[in-house]
Specification:
single chain, Beta-Lactamase, six-stranded mixed sheet, PFN, Vacuolar protein sorting-associated protein 62, actin binding, PFN_sf, Vps62
């Protein structure tokens, strides 16, 4: 898996890079209320106890790739308490404050003497790589080789060629660990002797969410493989303490919100302000059903709303029918507004996530930016019942605010505490975008779309007198880890259907207008043009409430904006036209309009169908599939799904990787060759008219792994599962369900 090579740098910077200063929040932490194991610096995970290191010693640094001025520095933990042991080293850029979250561990005294202790020294080390630095000479990367039944937790870095002492780190017994995956590529270096690239990533548990037990150690992973998702050589820890004793009690929760609760600023020109849910109901909101065209008034607490179940489209909420009342409700009532708080464990109970939900009765129309032209949309972007949120992530070791997640439509971003704005003490600022209510860490204009090309939906944020202080205007509506009945969940929270009616736009005229306004120099194909604009152009449906969102149980979903690099990876490059969009529309305007109207319907429908299907069929425990891919495919021409990878869940791959798999199918090599998806190799075991199945030949799973591949004239569905005959049947049923749903649009 690893090879050893040497890197060198062609130029030497003029000065030695400065050391980053440790980060501290603007104000001292308070004395938290007493109780439980929260903020006691050590956390029990069952058989082991962990401690978060505060101080580090620089070992070696590497200049950043891509011509950036900063370095990446590798550190070893310092001031490790007695009886605790290092698990691995830490890496970060020196252009940010020093703020590592690196754990050291010891065996708990409560565990009886066992033949297999929780921690063991490595047998020895394998040299992964060496690299020259203009500042620190040569650096050496070492992987601990664990005893049988144990896992390494991280990498050791030295500035000398001698193999490190086995006393330096400890390996952890395998049953106390979880698999981890790479995230946040830190550094990429190229060899001076070969074309091999050496990459360094952060790691995190593969399984994340409210009830997942994986604990991030804070170490890094490095490899010569360019696309490395699930990591086999190192692992994360697992919290086996079912009591989650480090989580805050209810008094501590209130203290955290009082201390960290952000102030939410709305744009000075915002017409559609938040309100409380009770004000929305009291002001005339109605609930409709498929069986009754007449809306029913909702009582003040929402107790007559249907509860439980799933979002099956049987019920939805709408505004009052009277025009004056309808317009009044759209405006909201900021005086009644409050934040609805969901408190949950994160990363195995070593962090607390405080998700704060904002309700706005109405989401206003969007503004589209095309180059230097701003287009105010009349209806597109509007919907009833807008739920947005942001999440505070707090360290359970100290009670320190670690980061904030800013929800932005279908995704969002984590922002470290040192990159936040603060208004008072340690209270961050959240900026809510005009009309759309997405949250951002700083004022300004953010483009949702192809920001590098200046094309996308505008999210405008600014300070104003319109604000809500969440540190005082909030209500805790759920904290499941505290036990049943600890928090009285409101009736409306159990409503799992849509908070607004579905709207389908006839956006043909709008899109024609957009094409006419595109800059002449943008020579893009029709297929690529669609991906520059947000899918909100095509239709809106009222969102589900907080409990219907994937992040209620799962982790927050980062969204990476479309970039120029994404545009260039499509398999339909042969359809790029040597004509400007302006000339293209003048020559073929009627044909384009028909295609736009048709493809728009497919795009919105596919993603809506995929999201609902994936949420119930893809995951780990209890789900039929561990991952799935929907691949753009048409053997006779360009697919109507618009991108090489139409959708993916549970796996991270790219069009270039999948091109070999698509060629494997097109060239009908099912009976003669193996194929690869991710890091797994598969052998076809059964071939049918429009689908085939295969088994993984290099899996480490005891029960094995398999894949079901369904092929149509528009797409390839790849359904990956773990297990044998029984799981294969469940996987086939899940895949067949999606195929049937997409078939309703002749896809």
């Amino acid at each position: 898996m690893f090879s050893c090579d040497c890197f060198s740098w062609n130029s030497v910077p003029e000065s030695y890079p400065s050391e980053p200063e440790p980060f501290s929040l603007p104000a001292p932490l308070p004395q938290w209320p007493q109780g439980t194991g929260f903020a006691r610096e050590r956390i029990s995970l069952g058989s082991i106890e962990v401690f978060k290191i505060r101080r580090f010693e620089r070992v070696w640094s590497s200049p950043s790739s891509h011509g950036k001025s900063h370095d990446f520095v590798f550190y070893k933990p310092l001031e490790i308490p007695v009886d605790f042991f290092c698990l691995g080293y830490y890496c970060q850029s020196n252009d940010q404050p020093l703020r590592g979250h690196v754990l050291v561990a010891r065996e708990t005294s409560s565990e009886p003497e066992a033949e297999s202790p929780a921690l063991k020294k490595p047998i020895n080390y394998s040299l992964i790589w060496t690299a020259d630095s203009p500042h620190d000479g040569c650096g050496y990367f070492w992987l601990p080789n664990p005893p049988l039944g144990y896992k390494a937790m991280g990498i050791v870095v030295t500035n000398k060629p001698d193999e490190p002492e086995v006393e330096k780190v400890r390996c952890v017994r395998a049953d106390l660990t979880e698999t981890c995956e790479t995230c946040d590529l830190l550094l990429s270096m190229n060899s001076k002797f070969s074309k091999i690239s050496f990459k360094v990533w952060n790691t995190r548990p593969c399984k994340r969410g409210m009830w997942s037990r994986g604990v991030s150690v804070g170490t890094f992973f490095c490899s010569t493989y360019s696309n490395y998702e699930q990591v086999a050589d190192i692992a994360c820890l697992k919290n086996l303490d079912s009591t989650l004793q480090a989580m805050p009690n209810i008094d501590q929760v209130h203290a955290l919100i009082n201390h960290y609760g952000p102030t939410v600023y709305f744009h000075p020109d915002e017409k559609y302000l938040p309100s409380s849910v009770q004000w929305f109901f009291k002001s005339g909101a109605l609930v409709y059903s498929r069986d009754n065209e007449k809306g029913k008034a909702i009582d003040y607490q929402g107790s007559n709303l249907p509860s439980g179940g799933t979002n099956d489209g049987a019920f939805w909420i709408d505004l009052p029918t009277d025009n004056d009342a309808r317009n009044n409700v759209k405006k909201g009532d900021i005086e009644s507004a409050e934040l609805y708080v969901h408190v949950k464990p994160a990363l195995g109970g070593t962090f607390t996530d405080i998700a704060m939900w904002v309700f706005c009765p109405f989401n206003g129309p969007g503004i589209l930016q095309v180059g230097f032209v701003n287009i105010k949309l009349n209806k597109i972007g509007e919907h009833v019942g807008d739920w947005e949120h942001f999440t505070l992530r707090v360290s359970n070791f100290t009670g320190e605010l670690w980061s904030v997640f800013f929800s932005q439509h279908s995704g969002g971003e984590w922002v470290n505490a040192f990159n936040l704005e603060y208004i008072e003490g340690n209270k961050p600022i959240v900026y809510s975008s005009r009309h759309g209510h997405a949250s951002f860490p700083h004022p300004g204009t953010y483009l949702q779309g192809a920001s590098k090309l200046g094309i996308g939906a505008r999210n405008e944020t600014a300070r104003s007198k319109l604000k809500v202080d969440s540190s005082s205007r909030y209500k805790v509506v759920a904290a499941e880890y505290l036990g049943k009945g600890a928090i009285a969940e409101p009736s409306w929270l159990q409503y799992m259907r849509e908070w607004g009616p579905t709207i389908v736009y006839d956006s043909r005229s709008e899109i024609e207008k957009l094409i006419d306004l595109l800059p002449v120099f943008l020579r893009l194909s029709l297929v690529i043009l669609f991906e520059l604009f947000p899918t909100e152009l095509y239709g809106e449906e009222g969102p589900t409430g907080p409990k219907g969102k994937a992040n209620w149980l799962g982790d927050e979903k980062n969204l990476r904006p479309l970039s120029v690099g994404d545009i260039r990876t499509h398999s339909h490059s042969q359809f790029l036209l040597p004509l400007s969009i302006q000339v293209f529309t003048e020559c073929f305007s009627s044909t384009i309009s028909d295609l736009l109207s048709y493809a728009t319907m497919d795009w919105a429908f596919v993603h809506k169908t995929w999201d609902k299907w994936a949420s119930t069929n893809i995951g780990y425990s209890g789900h039929p599939l561990k991952a799935a891919l929907l691949i753009n495919y048409d053997p006779t021409g360009p697919s109507r799904l618009l991108s090489t990878i139409a959708a993916q869940e549970g796996i991270k791959t790219n069009p270039i990787e999948l091109s070999h798999f698509v060629d494997f199918i097109k060239q009908n090599k099912l009976q003669t060759e193996l194929f690869t998806i991710g890091s797994n190799q598969y052998l076809v075991t059964s071939i049918h008219e429009n689908w085939f199945s295969a088994r993984c030949i290099n899996t480490s799973k005891p029960a094995g792994e398999g894949v079901i591949v369904i092929q149509t004239s528009a797409y390839i569905l790849v359904a990956l599962y773990e297990g044998s005959i029984g799981p294969a049947s469940r996987a086939m049923a899940a895949a067949d369900q999606l195929t049937w749903q997409l078939g309703r649009k002749n896809l």
